Amino acid sequence: MVRSQQKPALASVPFASTIMEDLARQETITRYAAAAADERIMQARSHLIGSAGPCFDLTAKRLHVIGFFLKNDVALGTALLCHIASDLISSIHALCESKRFYSVAALLRQLIEVEYLAFLGYIEPLRIAEWYRSPPEQIRRQFSPKQMRRASGGLFADHEYWVHCETGGHPHPNGRILLAEYSPPLDPSAATVPDVCHHIGRLWNSIRLAQTAQERQDCVSHELADAYEFAVREWRAIEDELVLSHDGIRGSGLKEEG
Length: 258
What we know:
Elements: H1 19-22, H2 26-36, H3 39-70, H4 73-97, H5 101-123, H6 126-133, H7 136-142, H8 145-151, H9 158-169, H10 188-213, H11 223-238, H12 241-245
Helix pairs in contact: 3-4, 3-10, 3-11, 4-5, 4-6, 4-10, 5-8, 5-9, 5-10
C-alpha cells in the first residue's frame, strides 16, 4: 500500500554546502588534506563505500520480488533505482581503490541523478511508478535533472549539480582538480571520497524513509543494511567535523543514521 506523503521540512539552505563550494578557504584545504592523510579515516571511508553496494543490491532484490508479485510499479521502479545505485557505487569503490578520481566524479554525477529520483519517491511515491512506466521522451521532459531539482522545492541546488558537471560530468577545464598530473592544491582523493560518502548517505536515507513509510521495512532491514549503517557510524565517529559539515543534510528532514 502506498500512503500519501507529507513533504519534509526543507533545509534553510539547499544541498550546496559541499567541499567544492569551500575549496578557496585555506582552512578547508588544510583540514581535508589532514583527514586524507589519516589512514584510519581513509579506511573508514573505503569500508563505507564498499559496504553500500551490496546493501543497495539486496534492497533491490527484495523490492523486485514484492513489485513482481504485487504488480506494484513503485516497488519495481525503486528496485531498479537500487540496482543502478549498487552498480554505480561498486564501480566507484573500485575506481577509488585504483585512484581514478576523475572517473569517480563522472559516476558520482550519475549517482546524484539517482539520488534526485529517490528523493522524489520519498515525497511522492507515485512519481517513481510514473518514471518507471514512462517512454524516453517523457523521461526527458519530466525527469531531467533540472526538472527533478525544481520538483524538490529547492532542496537540491542547481549550482551543486553544475559543479559536479564541471569536475566530472562533462569535459571541462575544472576537471583538472581531479587529475594528479595538474598538481591540484588538494589531493583528488581528499575531497572526492568523502563527497561520495555523503551522497550515498543522502540516497540511502531517501530509500530507507520511503520504504518505511510505505510499510516495506523488511526491504531495508537486513544484514547488509546493518553492515552499511555500522560503517557509517564508524566513519562519522572519526571523521573531521568540517568534512562532516559538508553533508548537505542537516536541517533538511533527511536525518542520517548514526
